[in-house]
Design brief:
alpha+beta, 5-stranded mixed sheet, 4 helices
Length: 131
Amino acid sequence: MSNRDVVEKFYLATQAGDGAAIVELLHPRFAARVAPGMPSVTETAPDSPAAALAAVWGPVFRDFEIAPYAEDWFDAQDGAVIVTGHYRGTARSTGKAVQAEFAHVWRVFDGKLSALHQYTDTWCWRDALAG
């Protein structure tokens, strides 16, 4: 399975709301860097799958019904997979739509996602939460 195949499984699992599949994809040493200013997030540099779930994905999915949709894929020479696209969904408290651009830089090790660096337009997220 290619690195791109592993990353693609993450997007499909997220779109399906399949938390168990997301956890299964994460390397035990998974680490992330989340865009500063991202609403709901309590830690922008979680350093384990449990920390990413507790500080990033759990709070985001509590406040938003949303998923990332990949549009363009780039394979880096060092094995990284770079994906650009849009998050699409709504803020649960307001019902306002979110369509925020993203760039994700993924690392894969031993067939598992080992790192994610997320860039996104956090203003779109915050605007959707504003009443």
